[in-house]
Amino acid sequence: MAVWQWYKGITPKTRVIIGVGIMAYAGVGLFLSDKAEEKFGLVPTEKDKEDLRNALPKITTVEKGDR
Q1: Which residues contact residue 15 at a Cβ distance below 8 angstroms, ignoring those fewer than 6 apart?
Q2: What domain range includes position 27?
Q3: Is 61 contained in some domain?
Q4: Model's pTM, two decimal places?
Q5: Does residue 37 sit within a domain?
Q6: How far apart are CA 67 and CA 4, in angstroms?
Q7: Over pLDDT 90: what percentage of the chain?
């Protein structure tokens, strides 16, 4: 709770800067993680993608009849 009180106590401009900084950090992390996967050879093959598709449960819809 102390962090929330501190956050509410700082100026709105500082809160915006903190928020934009967190979003930028996350964006850079997403970009660099893709590059790291390629560098370490962890890119999924077509067989891996097909295995994942087969492992997912299938959803079928059932029409509800009149009572």
Answers
A1: 7
A2: 2-55
A3: no
A4: 0.57
A5: yes
A6: 53
A7: 67
